[in-house]
Amino acid sequence: MSELKQSKYIDITTDYGFKKVFGSDTNKDLLIAFLNELFRGRKIIADLYYNKNEHVGDTEDIGTVIFDLTCTADNGERFIIEVQRTAQDNLKKRMLYYSSKLIADQAPKGNRRAWNYAISEVYIIVLMDGFAMPEAGDEQYFLHDICLCYRDHGKIFYDDLGFIYVELVNFVKAEAELVNDLDRWLYVLKNMSSLNGLSTYLRKPIFEKLFQLAEYSKLKPEEREMYNVSLRNKWDAESIRSSQEEQLKRAREKAMAEGKAEGKAEGEVIGKAEGKAEVIKNLLSSNKFSISEIAELADVTVEFVKQIEAEKAKRK
Q1: DSSP string, 60-99
Q2: Contact 182, 206 (CB under 8 A)
Q3: DSSP conformation letters of 178-193
Q4: Is 16 exposed, middle or buried (0-12, 13-18, 19+ CB in 10 A)?
Q5: Phi and psi (nearest 5°) for 63?
Q6: 3-state helix, strand, coil in the chain (%, to 5)
Q7: Which of the two ends of the chain, N or C, has the fewest CB atoms closer than 10 A to its terminal CB?
Q8: Reading across the β-sheet that carries 78-85, which strands appear in turn?
Q9: d(CA 156, CA 159)
Q10: What is the 3-state secondary structure (H, E, C) of 238-273?
Q11: Which long-range contacts (CB under 8 A, 24 or more apart) does 239-243 make?
């Protein structure tokens, strides 16, 4: 396969780039740093272990990157995190399914009474690249931190199951606007392949390692081939998604236009009917014309005149 014209750094939101940066023990300090920023102090991960079942979802989800992690916090707590760089189809239901599977898989084969449902905390983290949160409306949040809570007053009902969605399309900060490491991570995730080097805004050891790892020139020939395939796949998916969004936009605009036209026509009909009703009422009040004559004069049906007459009688 011919080599693509490349930027200095790989796109780390491709399947290959995401795995290379976050998917190995050698570089797990990068993933730990990123996850700790997403938790914003609620959890502090000291170490993590990549479980063997990297993909706990359906086998049909080819191309979707999923890391199943067992994490150890700085206080010794252990919890499970699933990190995804995923497609958008049935996003919310898919994440509910994956979280329930992570919980169900903790049950022992026997002696559940002794186990007593000692379920570890479970978190699903989703990197959403190129598409918006389903049914988000006009919200422009780039970080959706979700838990189970009471509908009426918002108090947390169960704190050991959570979902964090990172919506990159809504992260629009420039380098000079980055105020913390979470901003820096999201900026790098979104813009890595368009950067020419490590700026002063990103001058930290963890990002220095990231930039060194993501240099395209340092990839071996077989790694370049895998990356190029992954990059093409991402472009293809974005092209399909863009086409679908454009088709949906046109369909909505057409439906709105047709709806307005129908509404206008219906309004004209109603307006004419209301006008004729007044004429019929006046003719009925004159007591000079029969029902059939009024219908002919107003260009309406006899039934319509009788209806107006009945309504007029009720009001007396």
Answers
A1: T-TT-EEEEEEEEETTS-EEEEEEEE---TTHHHHHHHHH
A2: no
A3: --SHHHHHHHHHHHGG
A4: buried
A5: 95, -20
A6: 50, 15, 30
A7: C
A8: 45-50, 65-73, 78-85, 121-128, 156-167, 143-149
A9: 6
A10: HHHHHHHHHHHHHHHHHHHHHHHHHHHHHHHHHHHH
A11: 241/88, 241/130, 241/131
Element (DSSP H or E) covering residue 110: none
Question: What are the tokens at 46?
Answer: 């000291």
CA distance 144 to 126: 10
One-letter amino acid for residue 175 of the chain: E
Rounded to 5 degrees, what angle do the CA atoms 141, 33, 155 make?
45
**pLDDT tens per residue across all 316 residues of the chain:** 444 567 899 999 998 999 999 999 999 999 999 999 999 999 999 999 998 764 444 545 545 678 899 999 999 989 998 888 766 678 888 899 989 999 998 998 877 788 888 899 999 999 988 788 887 777 789 999 999 999 999 999 999 999 999 999 999 999 999 999 999 999 999 999 999 998 999 999 999 999 999 999 999 999 999 999 989 888 887 787 777 667 767 776 776 676 666 555 555 555 566 678 888 888 888 877 888 888 888 888 888 889 888 888 877 6
| Amino acid at the residue 129 | D
Could you give the CA distance from residue 273 to residue 262 in angstroms, rounded to a whole number? 16
Dump the DSSP string for 196-214.
-S--GGG-SHHHHHHHHHT
> 227 with 14: CB under 8 angstroms?
yes
Non-local CB neighbours of 115 within 8 Å, separated by 6+ positions: 107, 108
Question: How far is C-alpha 267 from the geometric centre of its chain's CA atoms?
Answer: 39
CB 16 within 8 A of CB 232: no
